[in-house]
Q: What sequence folds into this?
């Protein structure tokens, strides 16, 4: 008598690469490309307008603080007005006011335009991350957000280098119009996405004015603050630091950084999904800490590029893991606020870093990166404390 053999089928994974996910990744790529092209060139533009290091830090800082202040409102608007409205509005503001850089002739006017650009950036990036979160299957969120982040990282691979290369052969006016054109492409792509309908909470209207943050996202967002603090020093002052030392390769720095950041995105999210943030955060922050020490030292181009690789691997591992942590515990009708909270602390770190480093630069650019290393060390200490406290609570319950 024959016995039936059982055939076991592996459950099919839910798809990440849907039409809408491809569109959101492409839109994210083009808006980040336009933004990243301005990142190392804005400090040079401020210098051309007659500003010093302190004004460079202030111009970068005012942008990030503007984005920071608008993010809670963006988070509420995502839940009340809808994903598409907020995303398209933010991209439209970005296009108009990056294009307006082309006609700036004074630092005062640049300040005003940077404030409004920050509003557009706060709306568009908060919405973009939320739209991606909606589209990605929950069980593959760490992996999916890693791929989504990769779209911005690819832009980072080319944006700063392209911006620096173009500014050597064309005017700032032409450069900023090209950057605005990148944002316009993102806007057209975003208009083709089918956005998820908002899930309304019965208590939302009563609390919307009182609630600025999603509580479940606070811990990973605070950790992110100490990490992005370092980015303020890199984006704002590294081109000036290498120029002062007579070291070539700043354009290549951003390329190497982005390549290794992209490499980390291919595996860090999967590790997070399978094992949790412990296996991603501490190794990633050790790499970032080491990179900061290398940037404080940089005797030559080789050390500069090693620092880029270490920073790329570290930041590329930590950032999507912290974002997945920030949104995974939040209710479905609070994903927008969780992303708003996360990116608010992202902006706060960059903004405070840029402004503080403008003052610290008086003591030498190397001091900026030693201070950054201290910030990363604080994040590691705080993480260990939070992890041990959470473990103690679990053991006692």
A:
């Amino acid at each position: 008598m024959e016995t039936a053999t059982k055939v076991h089928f592996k459950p099919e994974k839910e798809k990440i690469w849907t039409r809408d996910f491809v569109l959101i990744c492409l839109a994210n790529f083009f808006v980040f490309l336009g933004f990243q092209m301005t990142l190392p060139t804005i400090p040079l533009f401020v210098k051309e307008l007659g500003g010093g290091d302190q004004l460079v830090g202030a111009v970068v800082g005012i942008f990030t603080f503007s984005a920071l202040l608008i993010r809670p409102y963006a988070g509420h608007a995502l839940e009340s007005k809808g994903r598409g409205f907020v995303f398209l509005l933010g991209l439209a503001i970005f296009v108009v006011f990056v294009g307006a850089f082309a006609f700036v002739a004074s630092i005062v006017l640049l300040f005003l335009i940077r404030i409004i650009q920050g509003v557009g950036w706060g709306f568009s990036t908060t919405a973009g991350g939320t739209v991606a979160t909606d589209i990605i299957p929950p069980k593959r969120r760490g992996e999916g957000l890693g791929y989504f982040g990769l779209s911005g990282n690819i832009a980072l691979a080319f944006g700063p280098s392209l911006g620096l290369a173009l500014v050597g052969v064309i005017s700032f006016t032409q450069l900023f119009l090209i950057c605005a054109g990148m944002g316009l492409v993102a806007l057209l792509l975003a208009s083709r996405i089918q956005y998820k309908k908002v899930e309304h909470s019965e208590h939302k209207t009563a609390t919307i004015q009182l609630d600025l943050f999603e509580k479940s996202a606070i811990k990973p967002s605070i950790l992110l603050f100490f990490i992005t603090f370092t980015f303020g020093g890199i984006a704002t002052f590294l081109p000036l630091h290498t120029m002062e030392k007579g070291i070539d390769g700043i354009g290549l720095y951003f390329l190497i950084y982005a390549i290794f950041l992209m490499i980390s995105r291919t595996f860090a999210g999967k590790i997070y999904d399978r094992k949790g943030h412990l296996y991603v955060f501490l190794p990633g922050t050790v790499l970032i800490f080491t990179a900061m020490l290398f940037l404080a030292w940089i005797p030559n181009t080789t050390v500069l590029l090693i620092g880029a690789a270490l920073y790329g691997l570290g930041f590329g591992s930590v950032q999507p893991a912290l974002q997945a942590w920030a949104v995974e515990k939040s209710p479905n009708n609070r994903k927008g606020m969780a992303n708003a909270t996360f990116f608010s602390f992202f902006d706060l770190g960059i903004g405070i870093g840029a402004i503080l480093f403008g003052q610290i630069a008086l003591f030498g650019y190397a001091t900026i990166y030693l201070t950054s290393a201290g910030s990363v060390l604080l994040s590691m200490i705080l993480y260990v404390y939070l992890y041990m406290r959470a473990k103690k609570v679990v053991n006692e319950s």
Observations:
- The radius of gyration is 21 Å.
- Confidence is low (pLDDT under 50) at residues 1-9, 202-210.
- The longest helix spans residues 365-396.
